[in-house]
Amino acid sequence: MFWRKRFVFVLLLAGVFFLSASWAMAKDIETDKTDLTDTFYIDVSVATVWTKPNILREVDTTSATNPADLRKWTTSMTYQDKLGLVGKLETQALYGSKVTVLERQGDWVKVAVHNQFTPKSDVGYPGWMPAAQLTKEKSYENQLHRPFALVTSPTAWLYNEKHKKNEFLELSFNTRLPVMQEFENEVLVATPSHGKKWLKKADVTVYNTEADIPAPTGEDIVNTGKKFLNLPYLWAGTSGFGFDCSGFTYTIYQANGILIPRDSSVQAKYGTPVDRKDLQPGDLLFFAYNEGKGSVHHVGVYIGDGKMIHSPNSSTHVRNDDIEASGFGKEYAGARRYVK
Fold first, then answer.
1. What is the pLDDT of residues 20-72, one digit of tens each?
2. Can you give the residue ranges of the NlpC/P60 domain (predicted)?
3. Annotation marks residue 310 as catalytic
4. Is 298 a catalytic residue?
């Protein structure tokens, strides 16, 4: 069994992830741009969502401004800096994506990131981020019914003009923006707060709706993952600037039109269970403490011949590994299939 994005969790999560309906009313918040209430849009290339407000280190500054510089942030951190993020970040949200504001503390807001399913919230994945990285402009909302450009390169530049000489913002893989007009080599898109900008057509694929993304094969999932070989690990990462293990699997599946839960422990509960002897490329492999009998802590994508592609930990990068030789084999806890 597999689920396409347009109906996967509409049915399942209503029962499984149902929490109390007594949500506190989202508080009004203010930024320099607008009065923010309830639904907003990410206004930076990638917004990093933290477990608490105001816990930034100096090295994290460039990730929390508007504009944010994710490339500078991820490349400037030492191994110890990256380890310092463990347990302090929740997830990330991409440019133009939707969040619901739940609470405010000073210049920070607690949000729920839509389309990142979790038992933590029935709205979306919750956590804290700077309010300055959000916007809510009617001109952008009015374009969301249009076809959209899906960024399919690991990262892609958004340009100020058609001739692509003036770079505006470096976007991540899997970013979606409404298409205003298509040309032979360029696509004109709407942005959350800066009007119309340009993308190279070679960096995107245009779809009329999410349902028009072709159903992938397992090999499609594997080939998507291979685009990120050698990309450094980032705790809570869901972008072409860095992934954690489940952010990697979540993102490559979503870019192929299949929405799965955000975290590995929850990904392990859905899809179709697969016996180890029946593994096929694209299946998700799960690994757990206590020699596979404890809680799930890691996920990878099976690529065949006893190997997987995954984003293991802060000391390394997206890579192919032999499951047994890597040491993960003794923690094997099962597999799930989300494609045919």
1. 332 332 333 333 333 445 999 999 999 999 999 999 999 999 999 999 999 99
2. 215-339
3. yes
4. yes
